[in-house]
Hints:
Layout: H1 2-19, H2 28-31, H3 36-42, E1 46-49, E2 52-55, H4 57-61, E3 68-71, E4 84-86, H5 102-115, E5 121-124, H6 131-143, H7 151-161, H8 169-191
Parallel strand pairs: 2-5, 3-4, 3-5
Antiparallel strand pairs: 1-2
Helix pairs in contact: 1-3, 6-7, 6-8
Amino acid sequence: MFLNLLRLVVAKAYHYITEGHHQERPTRALMSTNDPGIHAVLSPAAKVADGLFLGSCVAAATLPDRAAVVNVTCHLPIFSPSYSIRVKVDDCAGAHLFRNDVWLAERTMLFIHLHRRSRPVLVHCFAGRSRSCAVVLLYLMWSCPNTYSTVAGTYAYVQTCRPCVGVNHSFIFQIPGILRTLFQRTHQVARV
């Protein structure tokens, strides 16, 4: 029963986002569609690395209390307020990952890095396909530069873990620049 209610809520939210305000109810066809967005929202979180998971808002709503959460949305509620951080990102053409705020990017990378040692960390957006995946790509390339040296290779790896990913192209093009800035800042911090 809970899963059916959750599906209805997700279908309504998905319909609201994709269709706008002019229709009030999702149709039955939307709930049984082959749309990859719905399947991504309802699919469980995928393990990307030890202690690091990539998922949707449904995965975030069903997390155990001790998990840490990186919420990469502007409006979805934070389901685990004890250990959480919000990264406000819109998923549209030309959107900026971290809104050109290097301090927020650094804080997010350190949040994931420190918390995944002691508890599972879920990085999520609405469907777990674009915004959250971009943050996970950036984190993997920042934390393990020898293993994940290219965006294409890291993306291919994450896609094997969660096949429904589809990152916004503007985020893909921003990752190398953000990564360069993060390396400069973290290397300066390490020398102090």
